[in-house]
């Protein structure tokens, strides 16, 4: 089974020593576990992300959830779903529809994923939206946030569709997976059944070009049909030959 390790990061074909795992396998597992734990606690660096985005010509507004710090965030998921008072004031009162798309970068459970993968993905994705005539609100960055915080942001920015790029729960082979969530007509109270998710975005999982293809295609279908969630399925035929068979929902 060792040849299968050429095709997956999953723990298959592990080397054994008698009835136990070989020392190198035990140490590799311990390292992966430590990396996953570290990813949860790795702090977001808003200043560096703002600087990087400025280099791309993308203004980036830093916001914060109601979870004051990481321990509170981990114990109180509900506080990570809403903006704190200062951030709500900075965004302003909810607007009528004034843009087609809002994009929020959210640390989630892995700020590492945002730092490594959000900008390379946006490099491919934002020009496509611009070329297709989508109007877009300025980018926002949320510290100690969860997926649903995009609903409040999208509503405040008057967006028809909100795209949340968030660090996913770290795994033993993926401490830096990025997730993308699309929600039509965002507003507080939207449920997970009203979103579409594309997960495991990173070079070792779903690559940036494939992820950009899928996000852009889903966004187009969402605007056409004016919905997201369980009623909106990916058009595999439209993406055939561009993304290949990997990573379909």
Which key terms come to mind for this protein?
alpha/beta; Rossmann fold; two-stranded antiparallel sheet; 8 helices; disordered C terminus
CATH class: Alpha Beta
Secondary-structure element order, N to C: EEHHEHHEHEHEEEHH
How much of the polypeptide forms β-strand, as a percent range?
A: 15-25%
Helix-strand makeup class: alpha/beta
What percent of residues adopt helix (DSSP H or I)? 25-40%
The count of domains is: 1
Inertia-based shape? globular
CATH level-two architecture: 3-Layer(aba) Sandwich
Sheet with most strands: 6 strands, mixed
How far the N terminus sits from the C terminus, by CA atoms, comes to 27 Å
Q: Note poorly predicted spans.
A: 240-249
Tally of helical segments: 8
Number-wise, the strands total 8
- Give the spatial strand order of the biggest sheet: 3-5-4-6-7-8
Write the layout of secondary structure elements.
Blueprint lengths: L15 E2 L2 E2 L1 H19 L4 H10 L4 E5 L5 H6 L9 H7 L7 E8 L4 H21 L7 E5 L5 H8 L2 E9 L10 E7 L10 E7 L6 H18 L10 H4 L10
Parallel strand pairs: 3-5, 4-5, 4-6
Antiparallel strand pairs: 1-2, 6-7, 7-8
Protein architecture, described:
With 249 residues, the protein is an alpha/beta fold. It has a single domain (41-239), classed as Rossmann fold (3-Layer(aba) Sandwich). The protein is 37% helix and 18% strand. The protein contains eight helices and eight strands. Strand 4 (99-106), helix 5 and strand 5 form a beta-alpha-beta unit. Helix 5 crosses helix 7 (208-225).
What is the gist of this entry?
With 249 residues, this protein is of the alpha/beta class. The protein contains 8 helices and 8 strands.
